[in-house]
User: What shape does this take?
Amino acid sequence: MTMKYTEDHEWIKVEGDSATIGISPYAANALGDVVFVELPDIGTEFDKGDEAAVIESVKAASEVYAPVGGEVIAVNAALEDAPETVNASADGDGWFIKIKIKDADELDGLMDADAYKAFCAEL
Amino acid sequence: MAGKLACMTDFLKTQLHAKHVALGAKMVEFAGYDMPVQYPLGVMGEHQHTREKCGLFDVSHMGQCFIAADDGTFETAARALEALVPADISSLEPGQQRYSQFLNADGGILDDLMISRLGFEGHTHKLYLVVNAGCKLADYAHLEANLPAGVSLDIKDDMLSLLALQGPKAVSVLSALCPAVADLTFMTHTDVPLMLGSDPTFVHVSRSGYTGEDGFEISVKHDDAVRLTEALLAHDDVEMIGLGARDSLRLEAGLCLYGHDIDATTSPIEAGLFWSVPKHRRTGTGYLGAARIAADIADKSTRRLVGIKPEGRAPAREHTPVQDLDGNVIGEITSGGFGPTVGGPVAMGYVARKFTKAGTPVMLMVRGKARPATIQKMPFAPHNYFRGE
Assistant: This one.
């Protein structure tokens, strides 16, 4: 089970041929207070880089992009009533969606935790 | 995640810039200034703190100027400004303040502003104006071009900072430095010494602001701005508040933001600012843009700015199309976001006149999905102005 990151600050945690996707604590902190999360329907299919969800902070809306392609198999419905969970636990209870990965090779270009940490340090 | 990174360039800085940075503010460009959008408390926390206790805002980027006539009379200066705004200026008493707008020849809004007649002995012939940061250079050019000979503009942005202290605790906090400010009522002002330690600083204080709360705006000399900020922040009830919460506070209060809810294409009548145009100035003459005011009052078909309450939790942002229940586009959101005091999304926007009645159901097209909303009377959060006991 490994956690990988994109340059757009999404994380993806792979378990077998499926994966959980969220945004990093760094991103959640940068966005500020999250007030609404718009999640896709189960069964929606994405290509890598497609808009997968929308996250609204007090000030603005931001897109969450799919780190890899796949089909949505679960969404975190708890965020509907408690979007602030994204701030409290961005890499835990604040996850967005689970997908069935289409092509595991797409994971190769993503950063591991150390590389992502170094990436953020330069921002 | 799409993210934008701010770059430090040659933005203008207020006297409090270093203070904002030291307090851990997230700085953004606003109207050419490097300004704090939020502090570590966060937009939500800053908003709530202002509603419950007291927030301190650096609004020194706004323009401050004076208008006075060479003949030394208030009447000459007032008549000159009255040619450029719909408000009645001649009837201002010393120490009174009024809200108005600069209009272009077509009656579009060039800027909205606060106009005060000074109450200070020997200065009651002078008008003091506070204008928006993003419009101030154009406003000054507009005044220079349109004020008649014998009436002059004195721009004080190189000398004066402006702080806003807003919230239910503002009066107890500020009156500790000068008891006289507690006697001011909404939209009045005075010139007083504030005791900072044993050393007073003379300031211009008005009982006004842009949050819907009771509070003050304090015009202070640049050299005293940091000292005054530190004295106010020393109080347990006071937190610095950034532009993020300033926006959510004014939106809940139903107050227009220039460049969003009002601009050169909107008239004061369309923008719901009818109340700021006195009856005798609705005749179609007497000031630049007066014909549009009269025409928009007579023409019931023109659009109007209204409050819009989205159902559910999804905010509807600026430029979101507004539709009727049959799917026809009837207008557009001009300001929208999350209202922390309301506990849900709030918005304002222009809709065709027949949809302006409170309770009218509409649909908001958010990312291609129609979401239900209702026209609602503003403010979304009640005004708490102090109008006297």
Notes: Helices of chain B lie at 17-22, 42-52, 74-82, 136-146, 170-175, 222-233, 243-252, 290-298.
